[in-house]
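Q: Structure tokens for this one, please.
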Amino acid sequence: MLDFTNMRSIDVDVAKRTAWVQAGATLGELYYKISRETDTLYFPAGVCPTVGVGGYMGGGGYGNLLRKYGTAADNVLDARFMDVDGNILDRKSMGEDLFWAIRGGGSSSFGIVLAWKLSLVPVPKKVTVFIVNKTLEQGATEIFHKYQYVAPNIDRNLHIRTQVFAEYIGNTTKKTIRIMFEGIYQGTTDTLLPLLSRKFPELGVTREICEEIRMVQSTLVFWGLPSSTPTQILTNRSAIAKLNNKSKSDYVRTPIPVSGLRKIWRKLIQNDESALLMINPFGGRMADFSETAIPYPHRAGVLLQILKTVDFNGQPSDTTPTSLRRIAWL
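A: Here is the predicted structure, written as tokens:
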């Protein structure tokens, strides 16, 4: 049994575009450390800053840079690894078969990853982010239907995540569906707006809702914090809200027709507001990799990944009658 609590060192080498990260560090700590060294490199991992580095690379995690740089595991160069006999190995001494196996399919089956060597990727000094909300009354169904065709095939510099909620309309007892389109573009507003005007004008992105910020600030925005939040919060494990939920994933290869979307909306409206759909487009760099490049197989042909979640807010555990009903709904 190894306790990773104090195994959190992060060594960034800007010149070589690499970082050695011990398994006890979080993604937030990694991002903050990189941002202290440079604004033109980052690591293509997720937007949840409390996730541990140790399992993230091994488990096939990804984030807002997946369409340009693939998954986190695609950008692992080496590992410090302990096998079942207590031997500490690196990529050369463990061999390519084992190194293949520990990236993307769950590394804990084979031993314990003590640290990962990561390849840092280039990013501009400022990226552009925007958030657009659309309800059913504002044409959300038709806009999302087109999103399925546009988002996986648009410029690799643009990633548009969506979150889908059911919510009450004002103070009424009637519910609607709200879809939040969250975009991040590896470039300026001046370049983004003509791109969206050509490819996805229905989304209605304007200059007024675009914000040019550092890449590390985009992690704050996608976590739901203002971009002005001090980035040091990414290293404060107690200051960042912990999630308490149950999730399942689907991978969409054929666009869902409008009739199918309406069925999904009806199911969401039946929920007790504990549910969320979080949807990431694939395509781009993800389609360049073979499904056997690493043990993460969701590559060419996958349009979207849909994460379906129910939370246990207001419940003392995930086994109360209310929690069990939410899990059954999921």
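A few notes: The longest strand covers residues 158-168. DSSP finds ten helices and 14 strands in the chain.
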